[in-house]
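Why do we care about 3D structure at all? Because function follows from shape, and shape follows, mostly, from sequence. That is the central idea of this module. The next example makes it concrete: a single protein chain, its amino acid sequence, and then its structure expressed as tokens.
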Amino acid sequence: MSFQKPQETVLRETKRIAIGEVVMLLLMLAVYAALGRFALPVVLGGVIGAAYAVFNFFMLGMTVQKAMGLREENEALATMQLRSSYNMRMIGMLVVAIIAFALPFVDGLACIIPMVFPRLTILVLQLTGKIKDE
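And the structure:
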């Protein structure tokens, strides 16, 4: 497997997702604090979940980038690579969640919640017109 340099679009969109993750993580922590549940395990869980969510999005971008290059040569191979990447990233998400729930010093729920923040970030970007077709 050869290393492929991320395209500017992959880096730009990953940065947007990372910013959205940080903002929503801070909001989530504020909600935990308002409920009187704020503690170090919540922070650790949130940071772990947010970090995996950003990594997951970056890997999605890299897979799409690679698949678009392969599509010219072999569309079936490109499709297979996209499916394989999806499966591996979902398994990774499951492993991160299991580890978070297994570790006594990490709040598992606080780890899972940030994994939906990329979808919410994309929704906000669409509603505000920040995502444009290129």
